[in-house]
Amino acid sequence: MVGTVNTYRRVIALTGPLLPLVSFLARLPVAMSQFGSFLLVAQTSGSLATAGVVGGALSVGQVVFGPVLGRVADRHGQRPVVLTAAAVNAVATAALVAGALAHLATLPLALIGAVTGASVPLIGPLARTRSVALAHRADSDESVVGAVHALEGTLDEVSFVFGPALVGLAALLAHPAVALGGAAGLVAVFGTAYALHPTAAATAGSPPRARAARVRQPRVVHAVRVSLALQGVMFGACQAGIAALTARLGVPGQAGIVYASMGVVSAAVGLGLGALPARFGLRLRWRAATGAALALSVPLLFTDGLWPLYVVVTVLGAAYAPHLITAFALTERVVEPARLSAAMALAASSLVAGQAAALAVCGRLAERYGPVGAFAVAVAAAGLCLALALVTRVPRTRTHARPSAPPRPTAEPALG
User: Fold this and answer.
1) Which of 193, 210, 365, 394 has the smallest count of CB within 10 Å of its CB?
2) R_g of the chain, CA atoms, integer Å
3) Are 73 and 124 a contacting pair, CB within 8 Å?
4) Cα–Cα distance between 261 and 308 in angstroms, integer?
5) Rounded distance, CA 370 to CA 350, Å?
């Protein structure tokens, strides 16, 4: 326990105490926008179909343009990219609120939703890249790099628990527009703060010669992206199945709380992942996490009560963060540093794409076959994740040398 605390202290010493807090608050709008836009459009239009179209457009915008923003960040640095994206996203989110309240037609709302998704500032993937760059610049050992991934994964998990919870609370006490308006304010303030933080100097962009030659990515990179897409399918299928079962039980309002219980446990286990010794390599972690996801998801097929659902979903969450953290750590291990932001963004987009596709399909399956129809998709996706982890060759060491440490600027203020 003491060793784990000391490891995380070394991580905070690299980033400063302010950066994790700022990056967490800047991630919240991403978790709020999808759910918030669905609730807002559903309430103002009276149509779940319209809400689904707008939410789908938002997801498509993020999936398509997320890797583009990551690529631009690799070339020109995170600061200008995040500053621009945060400003556009704040305006687009506010426009979506105004358009929904003005009862715009489906097509204009979908176009605004697509711009909102396309301008998501990618704080999660970029924060991982920045923290890893800080660790490499300080010549930290692999235990610290592993703790960086664990901390960033935990921040992601917590944001995706609190984000929808804040939306639900705002919708209950006031109106979904309040939640989306808050998301616009958060991304404007904390996205800008993240961009301007002095640690942005660690990700100032790569010189042209560092990215001139196009290197073929190892197969494990593509396997990890597929695995993350399947993880997204599990998320989407669980959301649809939980919503269907709680509706059948007459307590639809419990759906968000049930899903949040999964995230809380997932975040706690993810933080504890930093305590694992180095002998538990990434290949073993990948296989263990996907095996656990399969074993722990099977009980979903036999769950038909609210409290059993709470128990099964809560326990299942223990498998999710280890898989996500390991997947991003594998990406960082095998991708050359000059292209890491784009790779992290593409990995995150794979997760979003899988979740969006599953929500679109599993909602219909749940209507036709009941909750078990959606949960069966989650179990099948977990099985495919495990198969992929078993057959994919994972390098035992880094395939690229660490970037050389640049000289530290002396004029920058120390803002934490």
Assistant:
1) 210
2) 21
3) no
4) 13
5) 27
Length of the chain measured in residues = 416
Q: Which of 384, 273, 343 shows the shortest CA–CA distance to 125? A: 343
How many CA atoms lie within 13 Å of 339's alpha carbon, on the beta-carbon side? 19
The single residue listed with the structure tokens 């079962």 is 245
Query: What is the pLDDT averaged over residues 194-212?
Result: 77
Q: How far apart are the first and last CA of the chain?
A: 25
Interatomic CA distance for residues 258 and 277, integer angstroms: 32
Q: Compute the CA torsion angle 67, 68, 71, 72 (nearest 10 deg).
A: -140
Cα–Cα distance for residue pair 367/48, rounded to 1 Å? 14
State the DSSP H helix or E strand holding residue 199, giving kind and residue range, or none if neither.
none
Check whether domain 18-207 has CATH 3.30.450.20, yes or no? no
Phi, psi of 389 (to 5 degrees): -65, -35
Q: Residue 309 — φ and ψ, nearest 5°?
A: -65, -45
Cα gap 288→327, rounded to integer Å: 12
For 3, 12, 69, 114, 373, the CA distances from 273, given in Å and listed in that order, are 12, 16, 29, 36, 32
Q: What are phi and psi of 130, to 5 degrees?
A: -65, -45
Residue type, 292: A
Tokens encoding 124: 């999660």
> Residue 32 in contact with residue 163, Cβ under 8 Å?
yes
Same topology, domains 18-207 and 217-394? Answer is: yes
For the segment 140-165, what is each residue's pLDDT rounded down to a tens digit?
888 888 888 888 888 887 887 788 77
* Sign of the Cα pseudo-torsion (198, 199, 202, 207, in order): negative
133: nearest Cα among 205, 192, 59? 205
Helices 371-391 and 340-369 meet at what angle, rounded to 10?
140
In which band, very low, low, confident or very high, does the pLDDT at 84 lie, cut at 50, 70 and 90?
A: very high
Q: How far is CA 88 from the centre of its chain?
A: 20
Q: Is 238:392 a contact under the CB 8 Å cutoff?
A: no
pLDDT tops 80 at residue 213: no
pLDDT band at 20, cuts 50/70/90?
very high
Most distant CA pair in the chain: distance in Å?
64
User: By the 8 A CB rule, do 126 and 101 touch?
Assistant: no
CATH code that applies to domain 217-394 = 1.20.1250.20
Whether 51 has a pLDDT exceeding 90, the answer reads: no
The domains of the chain are located at 18-207, 217-394
Q: Which residue has the tokens 């750590």?
A: 329
